[in-house]
Amino acid sequence: MSSRTSLQKLRVLLVIGAALSAQAQQRAGEVAASTTHAGIERSKSKLDAATGTQVDWNDVLSTDKGGRARIVLDDQSILTLGSSSRLDVIKHDSVSQQTELELKFGRIRCQVSKITGAQGHFQLRTPQAVTGVIGTDFGADASVPGETRFVCIAGTVRIYTPDMSSYVDCGPGSAVTVRDKQKLSPATVAEPQQVERWRHITEPGDPAFADTLNPPPQTAPAAPKPVEWHGLTITGNGRLRTEDWNNFDDGSGKGQYGFVESIFRLGIGQTKKRFQWQIELAQPTLLGLPKTAVLSAPQGQLGLGGTYFAANDSSRSAASVFPSKAFVRWTGFGGKPANQLTIGRFEFIDGTETKPANATLAFVKQERIAHRLIGNFAFSDVGRSEDGASFAWNRGRANLTLVAARPTRGVFQVDGLGELDVAWEYGALTVATGKGKSSGDLRIFGLGYQDARAIAKTDNRAAAAKNGADRFTGIDIGTIGMHYLHQLDAGSRGTFDLLLWGAGQLGQWGLQQHRAGALALEAGWQPRGVAWKPWIRAGYNYASGDGNPADARHNTFFQVLPTPRIYARFPFFNLENTNDAATMFYLRPTAKLTVRTDMHSLWLSSRRDLWYGGGGAFQPRSFGYQGRASGGLRGLANLWDASADYRVSPHWGVGLYYGHAWGKGVMHAIYPKHPNGDFGYVELLYRF
What are phi and psi of 151, to 5 degrees? Predict the structure, then answer.
């Protein structure tokens, strides 16, 4: 009996051991694709996560920096694990459709097969939240300590607190951020580029995959956590800047001065599932403006100090408070949160209707396309807002944006409350082209502009021609244009990019017929594997000028309502009657620091036209552009400048700039005793 009993016990132990072993090694799926630096921890052993490797229950998948892996579960759900991530595969039963995963840290995209069983579930746990889904496509980012960010691409994700006591639903095209020890906030509309970036991580090796996981230094820094109070979101930002000028002048030294400017903005708003609103107050201040930096024509205002002084009733100090934003926004038209209608006071910048998923395209679009014709003039102490309506419709890779608005006062005048007797209408179709290593961004746009103010226009005609009936005949101009951006990832040779922008204009300029045009062509190269991540760019900008002040035609390209300082960092010129051949050189030593230096050769398109400056209408009593006679010459200046922008923290930043201009023929004719100029500033930035 003893030997038989022992034998039976041995059999029972073997059966139990086999069952436990089978349970421990129960298959969950397999690795479908991976890069290097991806592995699997199983019991006490470590395996490479090579393509075809089986993934079992209780396996731990991990990636180092640069490592990525794609896993296909047995129910055909797809998991894509990002760089520097760790995932516990606790359970996956394809028969009962029960899946339990835990993302310890890092990023993952989950494309979940539809669950049909009554007991089925797909659960992903992170340090801050637990998701429950039936069949959906979403991304989870737990790479920042203390928070997890979710983006829903398709379907609906139900996001719970860790104790499962409360939840919020995140629908397609929406985003939710969950933070330690904070209540769940409602889902917000995800920017189209956020959704597009997550789409790229389905296959390791897609160049856009890295853009999703580790945005490069040239992208905008992440915004600090918003302040939540009783269901409201409170935001704020401020800038304190001191400017120093040694402007072109008559040799008297009146162009040498310094002053201080600041602007603080405080906003409050609320976001619901299909509705948002926001109110923002702006408080600009100017201190120590120069009282002698405005001379008679043709020398005029000597730098921005003279412009601020003249625009604020010849006051050396000025301040104001006014609403810079006050809008309501409805979202979700056609079932897509990115489809939006905005009504009220808001800011608008042409060229920013969409943000490409590719980081190179996104940076070039923001820095070298945006603001050319319509901008918020944020470099000035006051800025510009628009009163009107904006509509955005997205379908596939295309975006249609329609806007009709009237610009507010402001820019150089501290009182930005009122409107101007100016109106504009804008429509643009933007389409993303290509994908992966070769992708692009195409926009076709139209812009209408009407200025009914009864003031003399800035152009090359004689004063008598501008002050008669022409003064009471408005401006009505239509602009049709396009831009195309392209980037090519050439592997070890680096990344190349190309920019093409062009616009043509026709309409009425007072009593004159208006016909004008402008174009821009730029190219860039980012070599790979080079310290400090250099980016070399070269380009040419052309804007037509008027060759005959006495005829019935006006041929000077009109820049409408731009932010000229984007393209003229030493802001003594703009994109009217201008030729600008430039080189730009960027260095990005760290993720927080960007250094840039430019060289420009500037000359006028027509020697019979003016040298123009300014950025469009900003108050009822002045045109908004200044012009100085060229003296029959074309050479304007050579310009060298340099800047450094350092992000100290998510809240604080510092900016430095210095530029020097060597005046050429036009400058020597107007400022024979002091044709060269210098401009610099130091600024402190804060936001919450």
Answer: -130, 125
Using DSSP's 3-state secondary structure scheme, residue 333 falls into: helix
Which of 350, 386, 381 lies closest to 368, judged by CA? 350
Distance, in Å, from the CA atom of 475 to the CA atom of 516, rounded to the nearest integer, reads 14
User: Could you tell me which residues come within 8 angstroms of residue 27 by beta carbon, excluding any fewer than 6 positions away?
Assistant: 54, 55, 56, 57, 74
Angle ∠(144,147,153) on CA atoms, nearest 5: 95
The last residue of one of the domains, among 158, 179, 213, is 213
pTM of the prediction?
0.73
Domain annotation covers residue 1: no
pLDDT digits (tens, 9 = 90+) for 241-271: 999 999 999 999 999 999 999 999 999 999 8
Q: Are residues 395 and 462 in the same domain?
A: yes
Q: Which CATH number covers residue 649?
A: 2.40.160.100
Q: What is the DSSP letter of 531?
A: T
d(CA 462, CA 466): 7
Do 567 and 460 lie in a common domain?
yes
Task: Judge contact between 160 and 132, C-beta under 8 A.
Answer: yes
Most distant pair of Cα atoms in the chain: their distance: 127
Q: Which residue has the higher pLDDT, 470 or 226?
A: 470
Rounded to an integer, what distance in angstroms lies between the CA atom of residue 285 and that of residue 287? 7
Domain boundary residue, one of 180, 213, 246: 213
Peptide bond into 217 cis (omega under 30): no
Asked whether the beta carbons of 515 and 474 are under 8 A apart, the reply is: no
**Phi/psi at 464 (5° precision):** -60, -35
Structure tokens at 604: 């006028």
Same-domain status, 410 and 559: yes
